[in-house]
Amino acid sequence: MPDAADEVLAIGQIDRLSSELKTVLTSRKASIGNSLPSSIVPVAGAAKGSKAYLHGAIKSLRPHHLLAVPGLLWLLVFAIAPLGFLAVISFWTSTIFGLSETFTLDNYRAIFRDPVYFGVLLSTLRVALLTTAFSLIVGYPIAWYLTRLGGMKKNVCVLLLFMPFWTSYVVRTFVWLPMLGRTGLVNQLLVWAGITTQPLDWLLYNEGTVYIGLVYVYSLYMILPIYLSLDRLDPRLLEAGADLGANPYQTFRRIVLPLSMPGVVSGGVMVFLLACGAYVTPQLLGGPSGIMFGNIIASQFLNNNNWAFGAALALVLISLVFAGLLICGRRLRLDQVFIGGAH
């Protein structure tokens, strides 16, 4: 029995010494690791991380990514580069011999000092906003009607909607001259119906005619996004609203309109942008009272040969429109603004 007791005691001492040895080795290893230079581990990790990043970047490249290269080059050459050149020459000076690379801010000073340009700019923004509103009033019912159709009727109506846009923009604007002119169709109908005894001269060459031309030309850009939004609307939602006791107005206000807002905003932004830069329609139909900012910009390039001042005018208009787009983007994401009606 004493021999057995001594054996147990010896085993206990051995276990205790083994645990103490492990503790010493662990603390010594930690102290050695802490005594290493602090730059060794980060550098090794950075090198390993950079290799992994490069490997992941190369591995993530796919052949279909190359398909974006032609489009990016097109935007760079025909959109970004001309806009940059426009911004550069807006700070130059125009002379009778052409452009002088003399830096100046006189072009922008002239814009903000002369109330004429500021007035035309405000008038242009007003016309663009009202054109957008009128296009919405005209386009929303048409888009709703198209969604209620089915089969061949819908295809025929969509084809008829696109048909006028197969012709030139200028031709579609010229159509209103013989229709609203003194000897045009509208005046002849008014005289024939006895509404007036002589042709009306104010049907052309005023701001109202500009609205007619712009709404006619740009209404398709409002109709299509709204139509795409409404066409995705689940009819069961309308049935559920009716089952819950909602009348047609409540159904439209609480169900249809909120779900079609991406299309409304998308179409509104496109119509507003196009109307802000309108040139042909106010030039042909507006006359002196229907002049817009685009006409002033064109006159600086074509008639006055003042390219620097025309570039400054264009940059001011682009900046204001871009600021409005950013404000709109705060309310709705930009991807929804442009393609929200097409998802």
Task: Please give a handful of descriptors for the protein shown.
343 residues; mainly alpha; MetI-like fold; two-stranded antiparallel sheet; 16 helices; 2 strands; 2% strand; disordered N terminus
Task: Provide structural commentary.
With 343 residues, the protein is an all-alpha fold. The protein has a domain at 114-342: Orthogonal Bundle (MetI-like fold), CATH 1.10.3720.10. It contains 16 helices and two strands.
What does the overall shape look like? flat
Number of helices: 16
Structural class: mainly alpha
Low-confidence runs: 1-5, 32-48
| Radius of gyration using CA atoms only | 35 Å
CATH superfamily of the domain at 114-342: MetI-like
SSE succession = HHHEEHHHHHHHHHHHHH
Task: Provide the CATH topology of the domain at 114-342.
Answer: MetI-like fold
**CATH architecture title of the domain at 114-342:** Orthogonal Bundle
Mean pLDDT score, rounded?
82
Q: Return the CATH class of the domain at 114-342.
A: Mainly Alpha
Distance between the termini: 89 Å
Strand line-up of the largest beta sheet: 1-2
